[in-house]
Write a structure and sequence with these properties.
Strand content: 35-45%
CATH architecture: Roll
CATH class: Alpha Beta
Helix content: 25-40%
Structural class: alpha+beta
Number of domains: 1
């Protein structure tokens, strides 16, 4: 059952990225909002998916992904973090959750008022054995897959 769920998630992810279109530049409203939020960003690559604009880039020595709507309203940001930057309660919870080695940690921030959270991904044992957990800064588990 877990393999079928994971397979379905992989298919959905590939379909959603299939609709993503690389573009040279976003609209002025989006570029202005991006410049205000991330001055000094480098290696910026823009893409468009229906009515949202996404930038993959580096800022303050972090790999980031940000999404805006077509009016320049910020929607969400994902920041790749070093395990040494993550709050101690998050790492304690992550280490209790699995004995696998931690592969990546991302900080997710959203405009909808939801609390920021960390997503911890563990090294895979097989290609279909992805394991991840979403944790609030205080160590509370939001979800696990």
């Amino acid at each position: 059952m877990k393999k079928m769920l994971l397979f379905a998630l992989v298919i959905m992810a590939s379909l959603s990225t299939g609709c993503k279109q690389r573009i040279e530049q976003a609209p002025e409203e989006v570029l202005s909002a991006f410049g205000t939020m991330f001055p000094g960003a480098i290696e910026v690559e823009w893409s468009r998916q229906i009515s949202t604009f996404t930038a993959d880039f580096y800022h303050d020595q972090h790999e980031k992904y940000v999404q805006f709507d077509s009016t320049g309203t910020w929607l969400r940001t994902r920041t790749r973090m070093s395990i040494y930057e993550v709050p101690v309660p998050v790492m304690e919870t992550a280490r209790k959750y699995s004995n696998r080695k931690i592969d990546d940690v991302y900080l997710f921030e959203q405009s909808n008022g939801a609390a920021a959270y960390y997503m911890v991904e563990y090294k895979q044992e097989t290609p279909f054995s992805t394991k991840q957990i979403s944790i609030l800064a205080d160590g509370t588990v939001l979800s696990a897959l």
